[in-house]
Structures
1.
Amino acid sequence: MSSPRTDENPLPREIAPGVFWLGECLPMPYDGGMMHSYQSVFLVTGTECSLLFEAGHPAQLAVIERQLEGLLAAGAAPLRYLFTSHSETPHAGGGPRLMEHFPELQFVGDATDLHLYAPEYLDRQRSLNVGAELDLGGTRMRVVPAVIRDHRQTLWAFDTARRVLFTSDGVAHTHHHPAGQCGRFAEETVGLDLPALTAIFAEAALHWTRFVDVEPYIDRFDALVDDLEVAVIAPTHGLPISDPQTTLALIRAGLRLGSTTQTRQSRFA
Amino acid sequence: MTPLGGSTQAPVDGITVLQEGRLYALSNPIELDGRPTSTHPRSARGWATVNCYLVLDGSSALLVDSGFPIHRARLLEQLAALFDGSRQLAILFLRISEFNSVGNARAIADRFGVQTVIGGYPDDLAGWGDFDPKLAPFGTRTPSGGLADVGWASLTSTSQLPVGGLEVLRPELQLLPTYWIYDRLTGTVLTSDMFTHVLNDRPDGPTVCDDSCPPPVTDQIAEFLLDSRFWWLAGANTAPLRASLVDVFGPREIRTIGPAWGSILHGRRVVDDHVRAVDGALAELGARSPIGPDLVPDRGTVLR
């Protein structure tokens, strides 16, 4: 009874030198058609060690772990840190398997509920404040505030050398598999209606945006991108963005569109 | 288990009989000690129960949520006391992306056999609940074990539920996609992540808040909402959220509110008091200045 899966998985893909996009599409029927979403994981490599941003959706762990092992075998620096943005299963579900398999791995990022779903790894959990940095060798991963989020404890991260911003639920959007949009940058994708696809994701995961003024959040996000001089945006649920100055205009339009959506019944399924 | 008028509580084993032969709450405590949770304000102290619900109907049984993994052993004991294997078991994930909803699905499937998992997305839902390295080690495919071949259903209407007498409600008041379930036979509404605000001083309960409980305090509920999952409510347009409460509680005979965590609210007066208090909290929060991005911690802020 499984949904049809992607025929050829274009991942992993290097989205910046030493930064790899892992995972595969999660297909879902939507409004009579088929919509795809990513529940991505990113391997950020340094000269001394590597960090995994997000731990993977439970249904995709075998694929992600195979991709990870392949990259480590190909010479990526040893995996030292697991940074989960927040405690939802599409973001943190693979955490226990990773912690069990890599005995030296440190759990960093948001540890909400960790004592309730994987208490055996608490002794390897390390709390980081916003502004803290992890030295990977040749680059640092900085903890930055999650401007657009669902759970308030959510954390984002920023690769200081490659200037990649990892935004978890922020900048999330779906895409269409039949249009060949999987595994591409948003800017590489022909016919990607980013405003509509951003609004669709907000319908599912950023429900609160329908009840608030989203403009302060958009302003704060723009300021963060400018302040950090972001070159690449890597959302957990969406295609990476390689031209933030141009593409974020479409994301802003999608957040505004989603905030005015009044449907009370989900169109997923 | 001891019957309690039309409903009953047995705090020793954490099973509350809401109606014998029909609806049971399986409750297990978490300590609120300052460690971060997705369920409560960081400042909350004391104890709260995390609740799963078992609904029986003829040859079918529906388990609503499967709890945090830390409660696995006791939850399996509770289920074993209620579920004799003669019924076909389905699991409904009310909040499919949260560990307290999917956390023990694999262990339950391994022990009791599960025919169907039901949730809010049209995907192979069993995979969402299979992440424990002791059951599905690194490198192995999921879903596996008892979840490998179960069926799944996307919860788009009441007809997807394998037991009768239930109504699927889609509340406006939610952080993440969720449903509320109304049981017409017992007058109980299962409210997922809302009405979760009653805490305990002790790990053993009471699991049920009835007429003997102190009345709810609107201001305290407002702060509870704001400091936990509903951080975005300050200055929000809460009118449609309040209208959604009226849509649920206005036309139905609701005698019990069963939240996914926190004490079960039992009795018509108790239900009315808490609905009125939550509505008041929403009105109060909507009248506040928007928190907006000021809630986002600035660089250097200590998160924990």
Note: Chain B is about 20% helix and 25% strand.
2.
Amino acid sequence: MGGQFLIRGLQYGIYILEGVVCVSLASHGRWRRLKGLCLYVTLLFGLDGVARSAVLNYFGWDSSQFRYFYWLTDVVLALGAFLLTCSFFRRACAREEKLWFFVRKVLVFVFVLVIAVSALVLTRHYSKLFTYFIIEFSQNLYFSCLILNTMLYVMIQQLAIDDDELGLLVCGMGVQFAGEAAFLALFTLTAGDSFARDLIPFLSPACTLGMLLTWIYAITKTTQAAPAREQRGRRASWVEAIAD
Amino acid sequence: MFVAALILIISTGLFGFYLQTVCQKILRRQFSQEFFQSIVNANRLEFLSVRKAVENLNSPVEYPRLTLTLKCDFLALTYLLKNAANINQRYTYEERLLIVYFKLIFASLITRHWLKLGESSAVLKLTKILEYFANVVGERVNTVRFGNLTASDYLLNL
């Protein structure tokens, strides 16, 4: 009873924080620069908060419709997380066009690799083609997002990019992905033991809460770094003014 | 099994790393001025002298005194964080995170002492957190004005 209450509390906390992220983006005027983040949070709220709850209420917890819908939306959210990571890479490489060309190829390669590795499961489970592929694909995509996110953090340090907002956004993503990956690995190691099964419903939303709180801090408390293109434009106008 | 264990170790390590980075990034916040000095003077806090002693390798610092000093300063500052010029009378979530971070580093300081490893890096981290708390308290107190004086100036002139 107490556990269910806590799970509900965490879930509603996530919905509220998703709303707070959107409001903060709008009120601080950062939604134009952080369009990817804005879209991802809206998607998270729309699918996880609204659509899943509606399907759950209509079909019930044990229905196959809810199970299919849950895993399908999970794939969409995993794809959203991957695209958000790509948008952070783009922002980190805003002043390094050559590096961005290379990073873009790596991102495409990683995505194709994830599809290929997930497709291997199909060769073993033809009978459960839909469910096995989708679960495997979303798990692999989340783990690749964790690796890419860590690479992005290392890249930010190496290029000495002075952008606290980006750094905190990346850290928030890292908390979510690392937490999720750790719990899934624990679940696999304990072979779905009751301890792990009881723990996951609490820890997974706790990680999402951590991510959203870090994002809110990044949006509300950090100074706004001027976009690279804008800076370059300003510099070019100075050069023109001096030349005149 | 091996892959799952590997993922568990890597992910747990990364989880801790990202949390620590978030804390470090919060601590890097720039304040409009150095508020901590007036709070340290007004409340006779000792963490600045502890920091000086640790940075100056020649001055010896007694371990029991050091831990007691840091703990007392922590208690004083967390009380002020909650009650001094704080309308809501509660911590913000970043303050809560830093309180947990302080406690974890404090535990690591004790472990390092037992294992006879270098304690100075942990002590410097703890003083950095206390400095941040003092800055936050100072910033809040600075917004409350008594005539032409700010609260911190008023306290100093008592």
Note: Residues 121 and 133 of chain A are 6 Å apart (CA to CA).
